[in-house]
Specification:
The protein is mainly alpha-helical and about 90 residues long. The protein has 3 helices and no strands. The protein has one domain.
Length: about 90
């Protein structure tokens, strides 16, 4: 029973960190309108026009991969956390 509490706490910490990383990475990525120049001054993201320089160095592709893997980690941890919680609740009854 104690191990499930520790695992649940660990999953919660990983889930919160993954959510924070996702929010940050998504906020700094350029939008489609910024990439094509059709946006109104680059107001699509928090970074604005400054983030359009990222694509010159290939960081957009890296940010996309990081976003994908962080989202996968977030969803897997969420599912495992829900499953663990269901086991704990079933064991209590």
């Amino acid at each position: 029973m104690e191990i499930t509490k520790v695992a649940s706490s660990a999953f919660l910490i990983i889930q919160v960190l993954a959510a924070a990383v996702l929010i940050f990475i998504i906020a700094i990525q350029t939008t489609k309108s910024e990439q094509s120049g059709a946006g109104m001054g680059g107001w699509g993201t928090i970074g604005g026009q400054a983030t359009s320089q990222i694509s010159k160095f290939g960081l957009d592709a890296q940010l996309t991969r990081i976003t994908t893997w962080t989202a996968i980690v977030f969803f897997v941890v969420s599912i495992l956390s829900a499953y663990l919680e269901a086991i704990v609740r079933h064991a209590v009854k």
